[in-house]
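Box 3.1 — From sequence to structure: Transcription initiation factor IIE subunit beta
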Amino acid sequence: MSFLKPSSATSAPSPTPSNSSQTGKKRPRPDPSAPVYSQPENTSSGLETMTRVTFALDYLKENDKAMTFEDVFKYLSIQEPGGPGAKPRPAPKGGRDWKLLTTILQRHDKVEFDPTGFKGLGSYRYRPKHNVRSAEQLKGLLQRQTSSVGIKVSELKDGWTGAIDAINELDKKGEILVTRNQKTGQPLLVWQNDPSLSHNIDPEFRSMFLSIALPANPDDMRSRLEAAGLKPVSAPRESKPLNNQPQKKKKKAPRKGMKTSNTHMLNVFRDYSDKKK
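Predicted structure (token representation):
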């Protein structure tokens, strides 16, 4: 069995060295900036479109006036590739980006589009949640309110840059009611107010009222009210005692007008002894 001897075993072939290892030159790496022509050049066109729509809405909101789409398009400064080795160039009027953005903005719920504006060119304006841009419009909106829920100032500021100044001025005149942040003093909610219902309070009565010190402990306040013969609002409700006696079951009255009989079983109880043989 000479084939089991180590001397007869075949050795593994050694790898052949490449030309680059023999010459000492490194293999050139591909340029990461080179475009891959098998894939679309812009794979995030959808995200870029929505970003441009957001910028367009912010631009309309800041200007707070009707504008043409050409003004909005110039503000966006959209660039398109100029081909291999060429610099990007401005997107043309009436091109793909132009048509796509006009379609989106005309149907957007935050844009007031008037096709007859600017002599048929079409006008675009930011549409806030409340169509209020002056103090008189704010008072009209508050008068049309059908509930007692206040209007958020943050919603009024959306599309109305002078909302805070107008609210402060109306508050000084007593034409609206305002709740403010305790730390910053910024208005938070507004309601309608009727100045004719306001009455001046005697300064002496106000000083007497404010001089009354309230107890720090709520339990002391309850005991003082009870001592004065007043019922505190936070007093527990009196529960009615439950009747633990078992309820008597009503007996059913017997049915009248019906005769009970077993006439259908007369043959069973009949005596047949006389018929036995």
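Summary of the box: The first helix runs from residue 19 to 23.
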